[in-house]
Amino acid sequence: MLKFTPLILALLYAFAMYRFSVWRTLKALDAQSHPLAEPEITALTDRMAQALGLPRIAVQVYEVDPVNGLAAPDGRIFLTRGFLQKYRAGEVTAAELASVIAHELGHVALGHARRRMIDFTGQNAVFMLLSTLLNRFLPGIGVLIARTVANTLAASLSRRDEHEADAYASALLVKSGIGTAPQKSLFRKLEALTGAPGANAPAWLLSHPKTQDRIAAIEDREARWDQA
Length: 228
What we know:
single chain; about 230 residues; alpha+beta; four-stranded mixed β-sheet; about 70% helix; about 5% strand; globular; metalloendopeptidase activity; hydrolase
């Protein structure tokens, strides 16, 4: 039993870190958000709600400047103030923001918050154990190697979740009569809107799939649906 103590302690510590992060995130969202009040976007979310058999889809505005959409750990959907400013400036359309909402709904429907908790706990446990082991043989450098391994694993798992949420969004947008064109057009704009790493960044370090990969996956799904 004693030989497993470091692993158990690492898992407990990582789980505690995750729970604290969730608590802090929810507290910030509660303090800095309000219901979305944009009729053109709401008309599209109502169509998605009808397709899902729901009375409505509640969307909140998170009052921060970065351009982003997010699914909170408690299942709520948020668009940032920064994203809405781009919409009001005519840089993104209501349908493109609807595709963001559909994507975040995918994270909720597919249980990614719970999976993220498991992934985060495992990744941090791997980092702590690997850094302890490697530092015996490679003092100082061992921590860097362990962090690289943990970050690469985290990025890979995150890309998996993003592809799954993209697929959910594509299906919902088609079922709602909105189609996937806004989803693809938003992806083409996203790097410029967010300042995210560009096409030259190593794919294995990215938390989100590259734009061309996401669009190619959507078009592959469309081709398969057309043949069905």
